[in-house]
Write a sequence for this structure.
C-alpha cells in the first residue's frame, strides 16, 4: 500500500466521524466529439437521442418515487428537470439539428445547450440565470446515457463507502441510500447549499469545499472524514485509524452518557442556575435543539431565507417560519435576531454602491433602517408570530442610542397597525440588542433604560475591538477571545446590566468554548447561547463549577495583561477540576475551537 | 378557438423555476397551444426554459394567446393561477 497520506481541510457541513473506502464519482464532463453522419444514419441517430432522453426520464422519475419523506418538499427540483428534458428548446431543437446538419446527437445537443446558455447569460436576475446549472445537469445526464455509461445514481455502490465527488446536486444527494453511503465529501459547495441541508436531514457526515479532493483521492482508497472539524485524511496511517476509531467510540460513549443528563438543568456546584440556550438558523435544526437540552433559542439567525431566495421573502413566508419555531419551542423563548447582513449580499436585488470595507459598512441594523420596507416586512412577520410563542426581538450591530430609538419607533408603528386591524401579537414583546460594537460597551449603562436585554456577540466584538478582519489570513492569528480587553469589556456589560436591572446573555462562539465558559460564569453571566450540539457538554461542565471559586479566579485573571497567561491559567484550573478529562478535553478542544 | 388576454405576475418572486413549472404542468393537461408575449418577445408556453428566459419580475404584464379546442377553460385556469400568484400570495 505505498499510497501517500494526504490531509485536506474543508468546510464541516454535517457532523460525525466515518472511516471507509472511497467511491470516486467521475463527474468530469463527458467529452463531446463532432461526427458527420450520412443520410441513411439520420433515423438511427434520432432514435439514439430519443432513447437517451427516455432513459433519463426513467432515471429521474424513479429517483422521485424513491424520495424519502423528509425530502418531499424538494421534489419540485426533480419535476423541473423532467420538464427540461422535454423542452422544445432542448429536445425539438436537438432533433432538428441532427436532421438538418447531419451531425451526431451529442454535438447537436451541445449546440442546443450552448444556445440556451447564451440566452440565460443575458438574464439579469441571478436566481433565474443560475437555473442554467439545472439545464447542464440534465444535458450531462443525457450525454452519459448516449455514451452508454451505467448511470451513477450510486445504486451500483455495493459495499459501504464514502462518496467523493466534484459536486453533488441536491438531486444526487436526495438519491443517496444511507444504508450504503456512509457520507460524502465534495470539492465545491458550502454550509448553506441545499446539498448540505439534505446531508444534515439524512444524518450523513459530510465535508464540502475541499477544492481538490477528486484529484487526490483514488477510487477505493481508504478515507477518514471528520464532519466535526472538516478534515479529510486520504490513505491514513495506522496511527490515524487507531486515533479516529478511538475518537469515534469515545465520542459515542461520551455523547450517550452526557446526553442522558442533557435535559437536566445546569446548576453550579454551589447552587446557581445557568440558562443554556441554542444558536440556530434552520427550521429543520430546531427539532433537534430540545433533545440537546436547550432551554430556548438564544439566537435565531434569519439570513438564510433572504440568501436562498430570488427577490426578498414575503411576510407570509417569514411569518410561517418564525411561527413554527415559536410553537416548537414554547414556552421557552425564541430570540430572533433581525436581518444581520451586509448590503453587498443583495447586489442582484438592490442597487448598492461598492464598499471597500463591508465589515464596517452598510450592514445589519444600518442596512435595515436604511431600507425600512425590508425591515418592516420582517418586523411585521416577527410581531405576528409572537402571538404563537415566546418570541423576543434582538437588534444586531447597535452602535448608539439613535439606532435603538429608530428601530423601536418602527416597531411601535407596526404594533399600532396590527392593533387597528385586530391582528394578534404579543403587546409586551421584549426588544433587546446585541452588544458587539465597542461603542455600545462603553455606554451600556446608559442603554439599559431603553432595552429589555443585552446579548453579547463576542465574535464581532473581538473583531471590532482588536481591529482585525477574521477572514484576512494575514491577521487572523490576532483573533483572541482571551485578550484581557475582551474580558474587561464583557465585565463592563455584565455590571451595567446588573445595575440597570436587565438580563445579560452571551451568544458568540465564546459561550460554547469550554475554556471560556468558566470565565464567563465567573464574570456573572447567567445565560449562555451556543451551537446546540455542544449544549450537553457545557451543561456537564457547568455542573462541576463553583461560582464562588471562579470569582477568585476572575480576580487573578483581571491582573493579567497577556492572553497566553489567561489561557494557561484557566487550562490548568480545568485540568485540576477534571483530572480524567482526556476524552472530555479532547472533544472540548476540537469543538470549542470552531 | 382563439382567446387573447393580459395577465399580470402578482407574486413577489416573479416567474421563477417553481412557478414556470406550474404553468407548463397546467398547459400540458389541455389540448391547446399557448403563446406568451412580453414586449416584442413571443414564446411558447409549454417550454419551461422559454418561460424562464422571458425573465419576468413581479408586476410584469404578459399577453397570453391560446389557440385550440380547450382555449376557454385553459384561459380560466391560467388566469386563476396568475391571480393566486402561483400560490405564493
Amino acid at each position: 500500500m505505498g499510497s501517500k497520506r494526504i490531509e485536506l481541510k474543508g468546510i464541516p457541513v454535517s457532523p460525525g466521524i466515518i472511516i471507509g473506502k472511497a467511491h470516486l464519482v467521475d463527474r468530469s464532463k463527458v467529452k463531446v466529439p463532432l461526427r458527420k453522419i450520412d443520410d441513411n444514419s439520420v433515423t438511427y441517430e434520432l432514435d439514439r437521442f430519443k432513447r437517451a432522453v427516455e432513459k433519463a426520464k426513467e432515471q429521474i422519475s424513479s429517483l422521485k418515487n424513491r424520495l424519502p419523506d423528509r425530502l418531499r418538499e424538494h421534489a419540485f427540483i426533480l419535476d423541473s428537470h423532467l420538464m427540461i428534458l422535454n423542452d422544445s428548446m432542448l429536445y425539438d431543437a436537438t432533433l432538428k439539428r441532427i436532421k438538418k446538419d447531419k451531425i451526431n446527437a451529442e454535438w447537436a445537443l451541445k449546440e442546443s445547450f450552448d444556445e440556451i446558455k447564451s440566452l440565460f447569460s443575458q438574464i439579469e436576475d441571478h436566481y433565474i440565470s443560475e437555473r442554467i446549472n439545472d439545464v447542464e445537469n440534465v444535458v450531462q445526464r443525457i450525454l452519459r446515457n448516449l455514451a452508454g455509461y451505467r448511470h451513477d445514481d450510486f445504486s451500483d455502490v455495493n459495499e459501504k463507502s464514502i462518496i467523493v465527488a466534484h459536486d453533488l446536486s441536491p438531486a444526487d444527494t436526495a438519491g443517496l441510500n444511507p444504508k450504503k453511503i456512509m457520507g460524502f465529501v465534495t470539492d465545491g459547495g458550502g454550509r448553506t447549499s441545499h446539498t448540505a441541508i439534505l446531508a444534515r436531514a439524512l444524518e450523513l457526515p459530510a465535508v464540502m469545499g475541499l477544492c481538490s479532493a477528486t484529484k487526490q483521492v483514488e477510487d477505493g482508497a481508504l478515507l477518514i472524514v471528520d464532519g466535526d472539524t472538516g478534515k479529510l485524511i486520504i490513505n491514513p496511517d495506522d496511527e490515524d485509524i487507531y486515533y479516529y476509531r478511538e475518537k469515534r467510540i469515545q465520542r459515542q460513549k461520551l455523547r450517550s452518557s452526557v446526553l442522558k443528563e442533557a435535559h437536566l438543568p445546569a446548576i453550579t456546584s454551589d447552587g446557581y442556575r445557568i440558562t443554556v440556550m441554542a444558536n440556530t438558523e434552520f427550521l429543520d435544526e430546531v427539532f433537534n435543539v430540545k433533545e440537546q437540552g436547550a432551554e430556548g433559542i438564544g439566537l435565531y439567525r434569519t439570513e438564510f431565507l433572504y440568501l436562498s431566495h430570488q427577490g426578498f421573502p414575503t411576510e407570509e413566508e417569514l411569518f410561517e417560519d418564525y411561527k413554527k419555531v415559536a410553537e416548537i419551542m414554547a414556552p421557552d423563548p425564541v430570540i430572533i435576531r433581525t436581518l444581520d447582513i451586509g448590503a453587498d449580499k443583495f447586489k442582484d436585488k438592490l442597487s448598492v454602491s461598492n464598499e471597500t470595507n463591508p465589515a464596517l459598512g452598510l450592514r445589519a441594523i444600518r442596512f435595515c433602517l436604511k431600507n425600512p420596507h425590508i425591515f418592516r416586512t420582517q418586523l411585521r412577520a416577527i410581531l405576528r408570530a409572537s402571538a404563537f410563542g415566546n418570541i423576543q426581538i434582538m437588534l444586531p450591530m447597535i452602535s448608539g442610542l439613535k439606532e435603538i430609538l429608530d428601530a423601536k419607533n418602527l416597531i411601535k408603528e407596526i404594533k399600532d397597525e396590527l392593533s387597528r386591524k385586530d391582528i394578534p401579537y404579543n403587546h409586551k414583546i421584549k426588544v433587546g440588542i446585541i452588544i458587539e460594537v465597542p461603542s455600545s460597551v462603553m455606554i451600556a449603562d446608559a442603554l439599559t433604560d431603553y432595552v429589555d436585554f443585552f446579548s453579547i456577540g463576542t465574535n464581532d466584538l473581538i473583531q471590532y475591538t482588536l481591529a482585525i478582519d477574521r477572514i484576512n489570513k494575514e491577521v487572523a492569528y490576532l483573533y483572541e477571545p482571551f485578550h484581557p480587553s475582551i474580558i474587561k469589556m464583557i465585565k463592563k456589560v455584565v455590571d451595567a446590566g446588573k445595575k440597570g436591572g436587565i438580563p445579560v446573555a452571551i451568544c458568540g462562539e465564546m459561550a460554547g468554548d469550554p475554556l471560556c465558559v468558566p470565565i464567563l460564569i465567573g464574570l456573572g453571566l447567567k445565560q449562555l447561547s451556543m451551537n446546540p450540539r455542544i449544549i450537553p457538554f457545557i451543561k456537564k461542565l457547568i455542573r462541576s463549577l463553583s461560582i464562588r471559586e471562579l470569582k477568585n479566579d476572575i480576580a487573578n485573571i483581571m491582573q493579567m495583561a497577556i492572553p497566553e497567561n489567561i489561557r494557561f491559567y484557566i487550562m490548568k484550573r480545568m485540568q485540576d477540576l477534571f483530572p480524567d478529562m482526556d476524552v472530555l478535553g479532547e472533544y472540548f478542544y476540537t469543538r470549542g475551537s470552531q | 378557438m382563439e382567446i387573447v388576454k393580459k395577465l399580470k405576475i402578482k407574486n413577489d418572486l416573479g416567474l421563477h423555476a417553481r412557478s414556470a413549472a406550474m404553468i407548463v404542468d397546467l398547459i400540458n393537461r389541455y389540448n391547446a397551444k399557448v403563446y406568451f408575449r412580453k414586449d416584442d418577445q413571443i414564446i411558447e408556453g409549454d417550454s419551461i426554459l422559454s418561460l424562464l428566459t422571458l425573465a419576468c419580475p413581479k408586476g410584469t404584464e404578459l399577453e397570453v394567446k391560446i389557440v385550440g379546442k380547450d382555449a376557454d377553460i385553459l384561459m380560466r385556469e391560467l388566469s386563476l393561477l396568475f391571480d393566486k400568484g402561483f400560490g405564493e400570495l
